[in-house]
Amino acid sequence: MPKLAASPQLPEFGQIFLDHVAWMVPDISQAAPVFERLGFPLTPYAIHGNREPDTGELNLVGSANRLAILRRGYLEILTPVDGVDTPVTRHMRKALDHHTGVHLIAFTVSDASEATRQIAARGFDLQPTVHLKRKVEAADGTEAEAAFTVVRAAFELFPEARAQVLTHHTPEHVWQDRYIATQNGIVGLLEAAIVTADPIEAANRYARFVGRAVELDGNSLVVRLDRGQLRFVDARGGAEHFGRVSRPPMPAVGAITLTSEDLDKTRYFLLSNGLRLGAINPTHLLIDESEALGVHIVIVQD
User: The domain 17-179: what is its CATH number?
Assistant: First the structure.
């Protein structure tokens, strides 16, 4: 397993990072305690809007979130907003009909406009670009807006997990010290692992989307980014890869890998909070999908 080397939070021109993954859940109020038990202080509930560049009008996208902030990357909990009907809410509800779990993999680049041009040139149909905003309290206590430009592939092209690229315009409002996890020792997002009946096809499709190559790593395929990576696992071998038979319906994100600054500290914290861990292993910890809303969490030493 490659290490998540020290790196800046945001990519330079030409780089692409694994930025975050998002759980889609029917009710954030029920999901939040799961993440808090794992040691993640969450940002306040916030509703997304799309700010029209020409008029400045803010239209509801249809999603709301809370975030678990890491030193590198973050984890997101997404839920549909009641009473709103948009392509986003329809996609989210369809995903939730499949299962509760990770349904979005987001990459970050320095220039979303250039990424749009490149992704379209590689043959992908795209959703309209979104100038995403959400209200936040800034670190100094004033009201502010977190701002992102988000480029999404047509939803039907990625049944495993929605693929999108974004540019952060206000990182200071996202990575606020008061929200960064410290007690559990977890510091970064390293990998998302997709389990599918056709890992070769899926790996090549995601690789083409992010503009990187597919590599063989043991018994699975990986797409390495400038920070983080994607892994593609054959559904027939997924149980062996993740350590048990139970898993979400395929295709799906079967596991995410996080890094810890001190694996013993993380193990102690999780056990103290009553988490059931997989078989004792000196190289990694395994949190079962039943403890993490439908996805295995693997934790390795940073």
Answer: 3.10.180.10
